[in-house]
């Protein structure tokens, strides 16, 4: 069980995403998950071992480390990635439910003309319309919310995104104000800025996708409204014309009166 | 053998679960198993090495660590995950048993080996009840063993060979508290999901039984009424209390043949 399993879960959603959604999934897995696993974990691997305080007082180092790093950067990023990926499961569940209902109707004989067999239902790409549009849009909204919350928590916990090379600590049992040194602060700062930038890019992609979906639906609705305005009785006229033709061909007399124009 | 084995076993359970069951599986996989493997395990990695007591007496740290952590929280978490996932295997075993029976008898014995009906319904319900008891059991054990769900930064220890009451400092107490709270919250969420699934199963069964009973009752009362009218007609010749305008019409059901004949004969005579 590892990030590969999450990739399998989320990869299934890829088929039903918009193009921006697909770019987002790529950015998440290449620039965040992969960097976290192959690089960041090595940098933070010895974070407590090499956290050194200028005192021999036992317990001082533990207490100071706990005070300055209530949650490690690595763990916070891992949680952020998990939380940000899970709204996509809402979409996967909705698609699975839709396919299950379609298969049930197909077995009852209702949608035989639309699909050849049940395998066809599973292979069909589901369009982002109707209730799925709402699910998809809410999932994007939650993604943006989680990204923003985690970035804020990060900023709040570590007083910014920069790691200093020395921290001053005077918590019990430290006997006085003691200097504590973080291991590899510059490398950690570089990776922190990299991960934060990737978060910002992902957030921008999500905002762009949300705007795209909203614009698409507004555009579709205005097109439909325009079509209705230009030809208000178009459908009505056609059916009446067909009726007229039938009556003419049946009786041979023009018996239609009061035809609405 | 690793967590992949458990993951593969549980993936097989997915096809026989209800909708709520599949949500439960997703929560277990993502918010418990994945979080445990990618994050929580590393937080407790150096827990004994970084456990420090304010004393140079050899053995004091070991004894104090063993006293405060009889079993590591992260190992208890892993045990909980394994115990909570395994009742689902009861369902898989039962379905495999159905399939085995069908193969042995070489004919179709069930509508589908995976339909949650009859014996499989009981197995499914039992697995849910066992899951809920394990979850609650482990939460209670956690609470009792560590006096709550938070990890303090300092503990006082006066066990031999420590010469007096000594301060012992735990590594990363805040991070550990955060992950333990995360574990408790996801456990509670899983308990709620299991309760919902149990209620859903029981309610579905009640509705099915009630509908069946009601349908049987309605059918038998219709037959009784038909036979009662014909018997009354035969005995008294007076107009029956139940006005049945179709008493003389031909009835196709075989059970009503005799009363119908009596009825027709009587009408014919009067």
Automatic annotation (TrEMBL), chain A:
Keywords: Cell junction, Cell membrane, Gap junction, Membrane, Transmembrane, Transmembrane helix. GO terms for biological process: cell-cell signaling; gap junction-mediated intercellular transport. The chain crosses the membrane at residues 23-41, 77-98, 132-158, 191-215. GO terms for cellular component: connexin complex. Residues 146-213 form the Connexin cysteine-rich domain. Gene3D superfamilies: Gap junction channel protein cysteine-rich domain. It is a multi-pass membrane protein. The keyword Transmembrane applies. Residues 42-75 form the Connexin N-terminal domain. GO terms for molecular function: gap junction channel activity. It is found in: Cell junction, Gap junction; Cell membrane. Its main location: other. InterPro entries: Connexin, Connexin_CCC, Connexin_CS, Connexin_N, Connexin_N_sf. Signal peptide: none annotated. It holds the Pfam family Connexin. A connexon is composed of a hexamer of connexins. Belongs to the connexin family. One gap junction consists of a cluster of closely packed pairs of transmembrane channels, the connexons, through which materials of low MW diffuse from one cell to a neighboring cell. This is Gap junction protein.
UniProtKB/TrEMBL annotation, chain B:
One of its GO terms (molecular function) is gap junction channel activity. It is a multi-pass membrane protein. It is found in: Cell junction, Gap junction; Cell membrane. Its main location: other. Residues 42-75 form the Connexin N-terminal domain. PROSITE patterns: CONNEXINS_2. Residues 134-201 form the Connexin cysteine-rich domain. A connexon is composed of a hexamer of connexins. One gap junction consists of a cluster of closely packed pairs of transmembrane channels, the connexons, through which materials of low MW diffuse from one cell to a neighboring cell. Belongs to the connexin family. This is Gap junction protein. It comes from Tupaia chinensis.
